[in-house]
Specification:
five-stranded parallel sheet; 13 helices; about 280 residues; about 45% helix
């Protein structure tokens, strides 16, 4: 039971990867069922909390490292659930979550990467992007918001931008949550049938669903052209929520472990301070 192949390896986009061939109910790299996944998530949660606290302490003492989780996926793919689950396991003071929607007038007046730069995680921080700069080669393309002559050059711009971010000390974990159209229909139906879920439903979700093949092609092109050595893509089958959440937690955990951080060494004379504490009167 457990990961028989590292998640970062099993889920990483390799040359020749075809999104259309992905079984969105599969569990790449994982051997076990839902209960084993829940047990593993609990264990990983404790480890994540410790690793993230080390990162936060590192940043508070002059370090320059950070981690950025980039989440993409069709509506209902589970981005919100992943964010709640993964971030719920760590200290919120060391987390920066940004959910990117339609650009504001101020943002629209700038280069499309301007608002992304504003949201990059500070040293010591675990940053999470719920949608990201990839909307500018996905939505704008499929919806025809800008011509191909505008979005086509952005692939190379994004690669250069991400290299710059990585070289500045940020580890980027890019995840595409891949859901099937059948599972999406099921989740949308549940939102409509449950009054307490109505707030999550947006009529535009159906509009995007009707362009499913176009979005899948746009995602495929993004994977092909922006999965690099410094910022590779990972595709997580998302029809099984327990697996997608476990997989993302594992990817983030491995990224934090890869920083090889330890607790900062204090400049305080600990013995002297203990003596002062014992001698203090309150």
């Amino acid at each position: 039971m457990g990961w028989h192949k590292p998640a970062a390896e099993a889920l990483r986009v390799a040359p020749g990867f075809d999104l259309a061939d992905l079984d969105t109910r599969s569990t790449p790299g994982w051997r076990g069922k839902k209960r084993a996944g829940r047990d593993a998530m609990a264990t990983r949660g404790h480890e994540l909390a410790d690793l993230q606290e080390k990162l936060y302490a590192h940043g508070r003492t002059g370090g320059d490292r950070s981690v950025l989780l980039v989440l993409q996926g069709m509506d209902t793919a589970g981005k919100g659930g992943v964010v709640r689950t993964v971030l719920g396991m760590v200290d919120p003071q060391g987390v920066a979550l940004t959910a990117f929607g339609v650009p504001t007038p101020e943002e629209a007046a700038q280069h499309y990467l301007w608002r992304i730069r504003q949201a990059l995680p500070e040293p010591g921080t675990l940053g999470v992007f719920d949608r990201s700069h990839y909307e500018d080669v996905l939505v704008v393309r499929v919806e025809g918001l800008v011509p191909a002559t505008t979005w086509e050059p952005r692939f190379e711009e994004i690669n250069a931008f991400e290299r710059e971010v990585v070289e500045s000390g940020t580890t980027i974990v890019k995840v595409l949550l891949a859901i099937s159209p059948e599972e999406q229909a099921h989740r949308l139906r549940r939102r409509l049938e449950r009054p307490h879920k109505h707030w999550k439903y947006v009529p535009g979700d159906i509009d995007a669903r009707e362009r499913w093949p176009d979005y899948q092609q746009a995602y495929q092109d993004a994977l092909d052209r922006t999965s690099t050595e410094h910022a590779p893509w990972h595709v997580v089958p998302a029809d099984r929520k327990w697996f997608s959440r476990l997989a993302v937690a594992e990817l983030v955990g491995r990224a934090l472990e890869g920083l090889e951080l330890d607790w900062p060494v204090t400049a305080v004379d600990v013995e002297a301070e203990l003596a002062r504490l014992e001698a203090s009167e309150v």
